[in-house]
From TrEMBL:
<keyword id="KW-1133">Transmembrane helix</keyword>
<keyword id="KW-0472">Membrane</keyword>
<dbReference type="InterPro" id="IPR006680">
    <property type="entry name" value="Amidohydro-rel"/>
</dbReference>
<dbReference type="InterPro" id="IPR006076">
    <property type="entry name" value="FAD-dep_OxRdtase"/>
</dbReference>
<feature type="domain" description="FAD dependent oxidoreductase">
    <location>
        <begin position="8"/>
        <end position="392"/>
    </location>
</feature>
<keyword id="KW-0479">Metal-binding</keyword>
<feature type="domain" description="Amidohydrolase-related">
    <location>
        <begin position="457"/>
        <end position="800"/>
    </location>
</feature>
<protein>
    <recommendedName>
        <fullName>6-methylsalicylate decarboxylase</fullName>
        <ecNumber>4.1.1.52</ecNumber>
    </recommendedName>
</protein>
<keyword id="KW-0456">Lyase</keyword>
<keyword id="KW-0812">Transmembrane</keyword>
<dbReference type="InterPro" id="IPR032465">
    <property type="entry name" value="ACMSD"/>
</dbReference>
<feature type="transmembrane region" description="Helical">
    <location>
        <begin position="6"/>
        <end position="25"/>
    </location>
</feature>
<dbReference type="GO" id="GO:0016787">
    <property type="term" value="F:hydrolase activity"/>
</dbReference>
<dbReference type="GO" id="GO:0005829">
    <property type="term" value="C:cytosol"/>
</dbReference>
<dbReference type="Pfam" id="PF04909">
    <property type="entry name" value="Amidohydro_2"/>
</dbReference>
<dbReference type="InterPro" id="IPR032466">
    <property type="entry name" value="Metal_Hydrolase"/>
</dbReference>
<keyword id="KW-0210">Decarboxylase</keyword>
Length: 800
């Protein structure tokens, strides 16, 4: 129960902290209330996500609780003298392929409120607001939604005014960087210590620290696992920029509505624009949501903003600038050509898996409370957030909100679009990809030249369900597997959008490297791999069942555990409905290459079902390390990056296994297959070798020339076996069509398949690769029937 005799220390002066300070001092005018933030509240720029040029204010929620709360907040925005000067009811214009208006209308009706929400056909929508959105991207959009009762707020001004009012009523504002929370011997919170070594104490400590929260808790008591954020939320960021608006229709833009677009869904969350009539500007935000994962001194993996005092918020990679610029193209089409975004900024926020706030006592520390996690939609509640924080402190918060905002509630797997699935470290590599695309196809950063696309079947596509991405992170594959710069975001819907855009009839999905056995062999790692293999296979089967004409899949095995893998093969081909279209095998499993005699039971089981094996490269491994660990042994405690370093001392220093190691590991395992006579001993198995065989083709002559009598790999034998059992896909980060002439010396065009390697090859780069493929393969064959066979015919025959 909060009382006027207690002292309150609020850490963080964003919307949660500022609103809490104001409502607390109103409720308890005689209480001692201190609001601490690293920036002055009138500083020209602050790190808080709440400090911004402008923010959207709209009550359009599918979640009726947030609709109700926002309608309450909007009353203050419209009427209260503190916030009314900063609110502009300009309307909101929604462009989305998802029809969520019906549910929102139903919610408004339940609450007895005039929604102000209208639906327009695309043709009618183009005429709204003077036609400023007539050139927007309306791909797969049936209706456009306009809410004329919504608008935007002047963000930094409204936030500063809130704090000024709190200070005027008696709140003490302290500018200081908080180094850690302090606790007594019983673990109860007693206050904070600043970077200058000063202590500030209070009987109640409230964390409104946003993206900094997880790191602050870890820094404060690294040994206390019960205190940590864990999987409750993550520090995530989005990028924004603004452009001055000039010209004859400038007033229609800066006095116009907020624009929100969810097209195309494959790019991520929504992008959009917010007008600023006073400054005569438009602010745009991008669709890429990302994190910044780092290893804390206590050994945990947390996401936190960069350590710079300003979170390096103005150091924006070019890939993120391009993401912001794309918002203008998405909403205004050719009308965006006059825009020139400037003052790009990275905005850090705390995001929960369910997008709900946390307003709750901390269960592991008496007198410690948490009021944060705006999840990219909290700012609009500025006038009322503090009211509910005070109720939480008083113990009078209604039960539905207690459960909804609890620190210890059950969190689902994150599926919403605002959840970060990319790493900040990944984004400079994204720029590298974009530059390659631009050079490869003579693109400019301002736009692309589109080439018509023929129907195709993609045999080399990957799926990355959220639970698998999380398993990678939990196993330490950071920022991404095999030294990759990140874990790509993926959903079936995003993949379908990509397929539609590229005229891909069907994609055969597989789990990419490192597969499902994610840690150095040990008994705990084996148990996790067996469970994960079953989980990904059942998931892929469900996707195939939902989209049978669009997706096939290759099942995964928990190798190097042979017996468990044989069991999983039986389960896949007898219990799953629909069944897999084949099996994916990594080029090695911690040193167990594909010619290893221990794998015979696996091949025997696959031979019996006439399986197709899709080989996928992974990081190489020495035989010494394969013998050193046991699938039944203790966990050796070696992280994936350390494992890569053990096996790739040179490439490990320079970067990513896919760059050099993958192509050569495919060649190595191919040779191992033939030296062990696997293709002849298990002749009913078909094989797909990726990336045109990687480093294999240039070494085939050496494999044949240096063949020993006991193996006898003659050229004729090799060609006959390849013709009977082997296929080669031409996927790559860009097409490996350069290898076609060399491949055709060993195999017929009927053994060549098309692939994209998405999403590990980014969607945009795969699109560019498709165009390059079309050009190169037509030049290589100069025969329409052969080209069509490579694009789709050969795969159609292989999979029946």
């Amino acid at each position: 129960m909060a009382t006027s005799t207690e002292s309150y220390l609020i850490i963080g002066a964003g919307v949660f902290g500022a609103s809490t300070a104001l409502h607390l001092i109103r409720a308890y005018p005689n209480a001692s209330i201190t609001l601490v933030d690293r920036n002055a509240y009138d500083a020209p720029i602050r790190v808080a996500a709440s400090w911004d040029w402008n923010k959207v204010v709209r009550a359009d929620y599918v979640d009726i609780e947030y609709m109700r709360l926002c309608l309450e907040a909007k009353k203050y925005w419209s009427e209260d003298p503190i916030w009314k000067p900063y609110y502009h009811e300009s309307g909101v214009y929604w462009v989305s392929p998802n029809n969520f208006a019906e549910q929102m209308q139903e919610n408004y009706k339940k609450l007895g409120v005039d929604s102000g929400l209208y639906s327009f056909s695309v043709e009618e929508a183009k005429k709204q607001y003077g036609g400023i959105f007539k050139d927007a991207d309306f791909t797969n959009v049936e209706e456009v939604f306009v809410n004329k009762n919504s608008g935007w707020g002047e963000a930094k001004e409204a936030l500063q005014r809130t704090i000024e009012e709190a200070v005027k009523l008696g709140v003490k504002y302290v500018e200081a960087k908080v180094e850690k929370i302090e606790f007594d011997d019983d673990g109860a919170a007693t206050g904070i210590k600043t970077s200058k070594g000063e202590s500030i104490t209070a009987s109640r400590v409230i964390l409104s620290t946003g993206a900094y929260t997880a790191k602050l808790l870890a820094d404060s008591a690294p040994e206390r696992k019960d205190l940590q954020a864990g999987e409750r939320f993550v520090a995530a960021a989005v990028t924004e920029g603004f452009t001055p608006v000039f010209g004859e229709n400038a007033k229609d833009l800066y006095d116009g509505p907020v624009g929100i677009s969810m097209v195309p869904p494959s790019r991520g969350a929504s992008n959009g624009s917010v007008p600023h009539s006073k400054d005569k500007t438009l602010k745009f935000w991008g669709q890429i949501i990302f994190r910044n994962t780092q290893t804390h001194a206590n050994g945990s993996q947390i996401s936190a903003p960069p350590p710079a005092v300003d979170y390096a918020q103005l150091e924006v990679p070019d890939a993120l600038k391009e993401d912001v610029d794309y918002a203008g193209q998405s909403l205004f089409g050719k009308g965006s050509n006059a825009f020139k975004n400037e003052n790009y900024r990275i905005c850090w926020e705390a995001v929960t898996p369910d997008e709900d706030f946390i307003i709750s006592p901390h269960s592991a520390s008496k007198n410690l409370y948490v009021a944060t996690c705006g999840s990219f939609h909290g700012w609009k509640f500025l006038p009322i957030l503090g009211k509910y924080v005070v109720q939480m402190l008083d113990g009078s918060l209604e039960e539905t909100l207690v459960k909804k905002w609890s620190w210890d509630r059950s969190f689902p797997s994150p599926t919403h679009r605002a959840w970060p699935r990319r790493e900040l470290s990944d984004l400079n590599m994204s720029l590298f990809y974009f530059i390659i695309i631009s050079q490869l196809l003579s693109f400019t950063l301002g736009g692309t030249q589109m080439v018509s696309s023929k129907p195709k079947i993609d045999v080399h596509a990957h799926y990355v369900p959220d639970f698998y991405a999380q398993a990678l992170r939990d196993a330490g594959h950071l920022p991404g597997p095999d030294g990759m710069p990140g874990i790509p975001e993926w959903t079936p819907e995003a993949h379908l959008n990509f397929m539609e855009a590229q005229n891909i009839e069907k994609s055969y999905l597989s789990i990419s490297s490192p597969g499902v056995y994610l840690s150095v062999p040990s008994k705990p790692a084996t148990e996790k791999a067996i469970k994960l293999a079953r989980q990904v296979n059942e998931y892929a089967s469900d996707v195939k069942a939902k989209y049978p004409e669009k997706f096939g899949f290759f099942a995964s095995l928990p190798l190097p555990d042979v017996s468990a893998s044989v069991e999983e093969i039986k389960n896949c081909f007898t219990q799953l409905d629909p069944k897999p279209d084949g099996i994916v095998l990594m080029s090695n499993f911690y040193g167990m290459y594909l010619g290893d005699p221990d794998l015979d039971p696996v091949y025997k089981a696959l031979n019996e079902v006439n399986a197709t094996i899709f080989e996928h490269p992974t990081a190489p491994c020495t035989e010494h390390n394969h013998l050193r660990f046991s699938i039944d042994g203790e966990d050796p405690g070696i992280t994936p990056p350390e494992w890569l370093s053990l096996n790739r001392p040179v490439a490990g220093r320079q970067g990513r296994a896919p760059t050099i190691d993958f192509p050569f590991d495919t060649a190595r395992t191919f040779a191992d297959l033939f030296y062990s006579k696997i293709p002849t001993r298990f002749p009913r198995i078909k094989w797909i070798m990726p990336h045109a065989g990687g480093g294999l083709v240039p070494t085939l002559d050496r494999i044949v020339s240096y063949s020993t009598p006991d193996v006898n790999l003659t050229e004729s034998f090799m060609k006959a076996t390849l013709a009977k059992n082997f296929y080669f896909d031409l996927a790559g980060p860009w097409p490996v069509t350069w290898a076609i002439p060399s491949l055709l010396r060993w195999v017929s065009y009927e053994k060549l398949l098309w692939g994209t390697d998405t999403p590990f090859t980014p969607w945009a780069m795969a699109e560019a690769g498709r165009i390059k493929f079309d050009q190169d393969v037509e030049e290589a064959f100069n025969d329409t029937s052969k080209v069509e066979a490579v694009r789709r015919g050969n795969a159609a025959k292989l999979f029946g």
